Amino acid sequence: MKNIRNFCIIAHIDHGKSTLADRLLEITKTLNERELQAQVLDDMELEREKGITIKSHAIQMEYTALDGQKYVLNLIDTPGHVDFSYEVSRAIASCEGALLVVDATQGIQAQTISNLYLAFGHDLEIIPVLNKIDMPSAMIDEVKDQIVDLLGCSREEILSASGKTGEGVDRVLEAIVQRVPAPKGDEKAPLQALIFDSVFNPFRGIIAYFRVQNGVLRKGDKVKFFNTGSEYVADEVGVLKLKMQPRDEIRAGDVGYIISGIKTSVDVKVGDTITHVERPCAEAIAGFEDVKPMVFAGMYPVDSDEYEDLRASLEKLQLNDASLTFEPESSLALGFGFRCGFLGLLHMEIIQERLYREFDMDVITTVPNVSYRVTTTRGEQVDVHNPSGLPEPTMVAKIEEPYILAQIITKSEFLGNVMKLCIDKRGTLKNQVFITQDRVEVNFDMPLSEIVFDFYDKLKSISRGYASFDYHRTGYKESKLAKLDILLNGEPVDALSSLIYHEHAYAFGRKMCEKLKELIPRQQFDIAIQAAIGAKIIARETIKALRKDVTAKCYGGDISRKRKLLDKQKKGKKRMRQVGNVEVPQQAFLAVLKMD
What we know:
Oligomer: single chain
Structural class: alpha+beta
CATH architecture of the largest domain: 3-Layer(aba) Sandwich
CATH topology of the largest domain: Rossmann fold
Number of domains: 5
Distance between the termini: 57 Å
CATH class of the largest domain: Alpha Beta
Shape: globular
Radius of gyration: 28 Å
Strand content: 25-35%
Strand order of the largest sheet: 11-10-16-7-8-15-12-13
Mean pLDDT: 78
CATH superfamily of the largest domain: P-loop containing nucleotide triphosphate hydrolases
Helix content: 25-40%
Number of strands: 31
Largest sheet: 8 strands, antiparallel
């Protein structure tokens, strides 16, 4: 066990984690030349297209150090985007050390700091690595000063490397062997293994990835999952190279996988503990918090017969992405579907895309919102995830909305723009600190609902991509909100209704009506689009009917002939309006997000 090292790579998005991981795999000869490709651990099509890591990937390397000893290195590459911070927390829980990668051209960003605090919370050994030193715009000395300020380490401890050219990567491997502590654990104690990820395989059932804390797991052992209590036989255990490699046993301190023919996804929970049936451990492994979704949206199958298929697809996806939560709900306009909780808008987009690619499920997504806390006049507290679940206005005593602490790091020249954006979004400034002469950190207290839509995109555009953003939930605060309904021909469309700050309601309703007028196709009858708060209509647009020219066959003659034809058409339109229904296209539900 003294020759095992478990470590992860943490960094802000785009600071070169996956490229550095490629070089580590290349130097340790874990992959042959045929298997090597750029960002080899990002195996999802989606990750390659978008150029981001979505899942944390585990892989085992064998490395012979300069002192001639052979070491087994278990690496977990983690995502950098704020929406996938739950993946990072799981990777950190199963390691003893972390490489903190900082881009030499950009310096320390918000995600660097928040991931670092996660690692500190688990007492990991931090190895700072300055990446991209081969770039012409690299500010090596300045960024080293920033790292020294942040970590309190000496300049000599900071390793300089380039993931692209491979320069300095051998020193990184030596540092991992020298500085990261060996895993602690007792091979003779009862088995205790922490599940940190799982995937669904249609032929072999659910495959769980785990890290053994104590004991030994052998092939053919009878095991049980501590929290769910279900028992299985370990058909196959092994280690994770690029492909899975079976082994006879996995000992304490090592990382591996288990296949035991589990078909029901409820039995495997990320963060659960695996132990033996005959000699179980006394308690589960702690240190795994439950995920708190930030954004809620309804997902409905396009064809209502596919409801059960959608449930099965979401369950399989949840195995691989434990930060997704869902529960059934129904809507008048869309039928039966699920209320899903996401960590942010990018997370929601990725889930929608993965449902389509991996399970061939086409879904309609409603307007995302956050959960509010409503106190009724009787003094009861209700959590409202959906505007249609709001009690009658006469029953509501107060509505509280979730607040966050937003931490933004930007160049000082963009400070004014960033301040204005946050204040427009109802933020209050908590403090500002100059990290260096031209980099400043500002903290704002803001409502979560204001950052759900387009805050991140706007922040990036006003700061030319330099501002970085991170947030933490702080609790609930009372606020004056109004429920905005969208009516089509007098019928409310519950999928388009939203809870909104009362001063923004009029402008938002006006914009919604204009946007829907562009998107809803014209019918044979007039369609009235209205925005309403309670019984009060605040905006209206009308989509004119498509008309057939019924008088085209009349050449001259008496006006009464034309009148007769037009009156006949009028009656038909009136009847059609009573029976005709308005189809709302999928783009209309998504357009609400891109209101500007």
